[in-house]
Amino acid sequence: MRSHKKYMELAMKLAEKGKGHVSPNPLVGCIVVKRNRIVGKGWHRKYGDAHAEVNALNEAGKKARGATLYVTLEPCSHWGKTPPCTERIVEAGVSEVIIGMMDPNPVVSGAQELKLRGIKIKTGILEPDIKKQNEQFIKYMKVKRPFVLVKAAMSLDGKIATRTGHSKYITGKEARIYVHKLRAEMDAVMVGINTVLKDNPQLNTRMVRGRNPFIVIVDSHLRIPPNAKLFHDPLKVIIATSSQAPKAKVKQLLHKGVKVLVLRQKRGRIDLDELMKELGKMEIASVMIEGGAELNAEAIKSKIVDKILFFISPKMISHQIKDCR
Question: Which of 15, 84, 196, 226 has the most CB within a 10 Å radius?
Answer without folding.
Answer: 15
